[in-house]
Amino acid sequence: MSFEPLLGMRVVDLTSSLAGPTCTEILGGLGAEVVKVERPGRGDEARDWGPRFFDGGSVMFFAANRSKRSVALDFTDERGRHALLRLIAGADVVVQSMRAGSAERHGLGSEALREQNPALVYCSIEAFGNSGPLAGSPGYDPLMQAFAGLVSITGEPDRPGVRVGASVVDIGTGVWAALGVVAALLERGTTGRGRDVSVALFDTALSLVGYQLAAALQSGAAPGRHGTAFPLIAPYEVFPTADGELMIAAANDRLFRTLCERIGLPELLTDPRFATNPDRLANRDALLPPIRAQLAAQSSAHWLETLAGIPVAPVQD
Fold it and tell me: Of the listed 13, 44, 170, 203, which one is catalytic?
């Protein structure tokens, strides 16, 4: 049975790129009717990002615009703007990702739209938010990854930082925006009034490095890069096998005991250097080599069977 709590609601999507379309795609997946407004002749800029999936757009465009209807409207033109206003008059939600002040200049700000539709939930997705010295500045996912420190903590310790392979800031912002819209719709059910929802890419980026920020405040040092390892738990990283790689996450003492028993290293369990996770972290350089050597002697398939019940996964393409 499908779960469509937003069935019967209309969302007008004035977004482009990835964050905004991710938000409205989620709302569509919850049952809302999503009408995507695109520029005549050009459409969403993401239509040209990467190889074509169909003639009308790229892989990225279709990945973030599932189950939407699209209409071409030039709202800088008076006729197009009036058509858009008629569409919004019957909508429950508007989501926009224009540069700060652009929506207001075109008569599409929240105050203007709520004059004709007081129950409208109006969601703005911005780069740096609507206040502060960077308000109104442009931004994309990789810029935010760099600015918030994600690039700095991603990669191998002896090499420059790298961008996270997935667009985690864009997609995360879309998820937060969808949550905000759903919360505003829930509130509207009680108050009968719409509300503004504002989400910034930079806020999302900072939320992804929460414990690193806390650690930096505590220690006064930058977190650094740790490859596939998690700096707060050991062993908790990728290990080579005879024919591939496995991610192993021995997140507590019980799992560590089971891991050592299964891979044939029971002597590690009686070594006081490895008694607890803080001990293992302090002695990581002594702990990891014997585990690596043992795992490298057998195939990934062998270890996946042997380690059943322990959090372990093959590293796949």
Answer: 170
